[in-house]
Design brief:
With 475 residues, the chain is an alpha+beta fold. Helix content is 24%, strand content 26%. Strands 1, 2, 3, 4, 5, 6, 7, 8, 9, 10, 11, 12 and 13 form a 13-stranded mixed sheet that branches. Strands 18, 19, 20, 21, 22, 23 and 24 form a 7-stranded mixed sheet that branches. It has a two-stranded antiparallel sheet with strand order 14-15. Strand 19 and strand 20 form a beta hairpin. The protein is globular and about 75 Å long. It starts with a helix and ends in a 6-residue tail after the last strand. The relative contact order is 0.09.
Length: 475
């Protein structure tokens, strides 16, 4: 009886979970589920090389099935960058002067498998603010004169309606307009009327006729990738600088390219955006929605896009009282901005040096801006336009550079309305002090940093506020 009582006491002691379940033979002895343990993987690893804007590169050992988004996430983590969902991989074909933003879901190894060994093609890691901008503002990407809706759509199509029609399997808007096409095997270009339909891209053999007997098939997209011309007229001899083309996945060279050229940037953007939507459909929308998954209240086509890091950090504040507050009234915010702009004229021209002590602007006013990511020293107008185009023609993408025509002045290059505009920043001397202005001295700033900070909050004489700066990152 004593032994039995002793056994009962032992049984009453609660069982202690095994802290090392992986060392046990029996699967039932483990408290942790086997599904939580790391599984052995047989995925092959390969080395890829990714370049940055300054042509520095970084070699990465990655699984053979890694996607472009995963490579971007890896580089963001390794370099401690802020992930604002605008990072992308960019494929550049050096020999042909072509490039494209790689879609987030594409497999990197498949892209490299299509490269020719002799060509020095590269993958770049950079920001592209326009990658999914058409999901946020589709009306600006599809002008009325280039898009036709199905006959049953008689009402005006709103913001989400355009996207739903592009992503629908039953209906698809028709894109139409003139494009220059390079004739196969020749150097000449011919202007033709093109139509984009779900079955592919066609051109009319008789003016602008859309009758089936006048339509000739030009290209389909399932086995080819779309590239933008990076060299303008130089290599292809195109009539304008707004070229794009279709390259088969297994291409034998430039002879297999189907080259097109638009009359302006708006037309090219419309064609290329519509073809991306036609080729990838819902996959493209899923790529766009990936950062927002898991948020409460997110419904398809009604997601309020996350603002950029620069926008999130710029709000109107009132520091006049004992406690600071955010100014939510737009009218009050505007009046405060005007007062602040006037106050900047009278403010003492002091900044902190690297040791944290104030230093007169007369000693450093000419060079303080050179440490800023948005400033690009001694680059040409063409190089500035190329940089902005790489970052995406979204309203508010900008950089500041030295003026080539006047060495004492600077230029603000800004994207707005799918166009790149240039504004001269003029130095102005008043009462022995040096100021900078964009509006003939009405608003003056003691340095370029103040100027940029002001126009990030107020558009002033500019067509829009400064939102995203172009920077040359290093890996």
């Amino acid at each position: 009886n004593r032994r039995k009582k002793k056994d009962d006491n032992i049984l009453e002691i609660p069982s202690i979970p095994n802290p090392f379940p992986e060392l046990c033979c029996s699967p039932f002895a483990s408290v942790l589920s086997a599904s939580l343990l790391p599984k052995a993987t047989s995925r092959k690893k390969q080395v890829i090389k990714v370049y940055s804007e300054d042509d520095t590169s970084r070699a990465l050992e990655v699984p053979s099935d890694i996607t472009a988004r995963d490579v971007c996430q890896l580089l963001i983590l390794k370099n401690h960058y802020i992930d604002d969902h605008s990072w992308t991989l960019f494929e550049q074909l050096t020999h042909t002067g072509l490039g494209r933003a790689v879609e987030d879901h594409e497999l990197v190894m498949e892209i490299q498998s299509n490269w020719v060994m002799e060509e020095e093609n590269k993958l770049y890691f950079r920001k592209n603010y326009a990658k999914y901008e058409f999901f946020k503002n589709p009306l600006s990407f599809f002008p009325d004169h280039m898009i036709s809706f199905p006959s049953e759509t008689n009402a005006a199509v709103n913001h989400s309606g355009i996207l739903q029609m592009f992503l629908s399997s039953s209906t698809y808007p028709e894109i139409h307009g003139y494009l220059h096409a390079k004739e196969q095997g020749k150097k000449s270009w011919k202007k033709l009327y093109f139509l984009l339909r779900r079955s592919g891209l066609y051109f009319s053999t008789k003016g602008t006729s859309k009758e089936p007997r006048h339509l000739q098939f030009f290209c389909e997209f399932s086995n080819s990738d779309m590239y933008m011309s990076l060299t303008g007229k130089k290599i292809s001899g195109a009539p304008t600088n707004y070229g794009f083309c279709f390259k088969p996945n297994k291409s034998g060279g430039t002879r297999d390219l189907k080259q097109l050229c638009a009359d302006d940037e708006q037309s090219r953007t419309c064609w290329m955006t519509a073809i991306r939507l036609l080729k990838y459909g819902m996959q493209l929308y899923q790529n766009y929605m990936q950062p927002y998954r898991g948020r409460s209240g997110c419904s398809p086509l009604n997601v309020t896009p996350m603002r950029s890091i620069s926008e999130n950090s710029l709000v109107a504040m009132d520091f006049s009282g004992h406690r600071s507050r955010i100014i939510e009234n737009p009218t009050e915010a505007l009046s405060v901005a005007v007062e602040e702009g006037l106050a900047w004229r009278r403010r003492g021209c002091l900044r902190l040096n690297s040791h944290g002590s104030p230093i007169a602007m007369s000693n450093m006013g000419m060079s303080i801006h050179r440490s800023q990511s948005w400033f690009h020293h001694k680059i040409s107008r063409e190089e500035a336009q190329r940089l902005i185009l790489q970052h995406g023609l979204v309203d508010g993408v900008f950089l500041v550079r030295d003026s080539q025509s006047n060495p004492k002045t600077f230029v603000l290059s800004l994207s707005h309305g799918l166009k790149i505009k240039h504004f001269q920043i003029v130095p102005l001397e008043d009462d022995g002090k040096l100021f900078y202005t964009l509006d003939d001295g009405h608003t003056r700033f003691t340095d370029l940093i103040q100027l940029v900070e002001f126009y990030q909050l107020n558009k002033g004489v500019l067509p829009c506020k400064l939102k995203h700066y172009c920077a040359r990152i290093a890996l």
